[in-house]
């Protein structure tokens, strides 16, 4: 939300505590006179709103500003540690938790192991126990908790926020918001994990100044999210960005969604582990006594150490992903594409290979205008994005 100058009559009808709070966030430190100048409101009107924000604890005095003639003004800023949100990121083998305050400062993070070959209700019980523990340990009053955001690797309905299908979790038609509403009198927000990563990159990451970008994540599956004209693009029912289920090889392996040859079936961490296990059985990789103990991190390690078979797995994955990125460049026309989560572990030469495939297969002009970059935040993006959802709501954003 960015506000420009306009007449008092119009702004007096529209302005509220939320919009002034957002202006204070954007400007870091600002005086009542500064707010009045930005909004066009009178200093008296701004003073009334600032007083209300002080009373509620959202803001505090930050010091004295420079005089432009007359008394030096008092500056105001967001109050660290005043209000909080919790972000939860679900995947097939863990649940990640982050506690954030309204300034974006991470106060706490943790993750717990979880086997999702169980009912959704059991997984929800584990989440509720951990959330209650975080609230208790950090002594957070419930009226100071803005809400809990939950990131899920699956398709979320735009209107009902129901999880329509999360194939890697084995969940279908799960109303997580409703099932978790007994935990406390604060809102629960459920969103797709790639959407959460995009919110994170746009709020505190490498896309703060981007209006048209795409985030691609690899973990249990492949997910992506699209920012178009400064907003998340969700499509008519919330499935926009399901790049993992683009068919890249019609004769490829069966995907968890039921189709064959999906990008996710060829590029996800799970598919790369399955390829490594096959190479172990063939005797091409000899570094593992326990074939079931192979992880994608071990594949990255072997590739770094010069194991050619492990490197081939990554090169093949990067090639398929490069093809999918070329299609995104042609159809979505982003200015930036961000590679997140496990993709951020690709070595520089593997990323260069991915870029070269994308550049060769995409239309030349849009390909020349896009940057393909690796996320600097890495594995925490979805949990951070989930925590950002309640914070953005406070500042008046629609998601």
TrEMBL record:
Protein name: ROK family protein
Keywords: Carbohydrate metabolism, Xylose metabolism
Record-stated family: Belongs to the ROK (NagC/XylR) family.
Claim: Lipoprotein is one of the keywords in the record: no
Function according to Swiss-Prot or TrEMBL: Transcriptional repressor of xylose-utilizing enzymes.
Taxonomic superkingdom: Bacteria
Any coiled-coil regions, as ranges: none
Lineage: Bacteria, Bacillati, Bacillota, Clostridia, Eubacteriales
CDD domains (alphabetical): ASKHA_ATPase_ROK_BsXylR-like
GO term, biological process aspect, one: D-xylose metabolic process
InterPro entries assigned to the protein according to its UniProt record, in alphabetical order: ATPase_NBD, ROK, WH-like_DNA-bd_sf, WH_DNA-bd_sf
